[in-house]
Amino acid sequence: AEFIKLYAYHLKNHPIAVHWDMDVAILHPLDDLYDVMIFPPSDPRNKAARERIERQHPEEKWPEVVDAFLTRDVTSAMPWEERTAVQGGFLVARPDVAVF
Description:
- By secondary structure, the chain is an alpha+beta fold.
- It is built from two helices and three strands; from the N terminus they run E-H-H-E-E.
- It has helices at residues 31-38, 44-52, and strands at residues 17-20, 68-72, 86-93.
- It has a three-stranded antiparallel β-sheet.
- Helix 1 (31-38) crosses helix 2 (44-52).
- The chain is globular and about 40 Å long.
């Protein structure tokens, strides 16, 4: 049942697919995530959205093309771990069967 959200990659008739578990609360609009994924990196809407998104490691450079946003499970990571595991509660992805 946990892998069902990966079928979002099969929704090729949509530019972006969003999946979240029932225990996830969306507290702010997702527009900035969409703008980064839909508009080219040179587009002012993409650039402005990148500035507004809070990231776990803001010191790292953005990839030119963003194909997915997901949540990380910081509660199960050790305090010294630089990277945390992917948490399956929230996924915003560009559908692509090749990624599936």
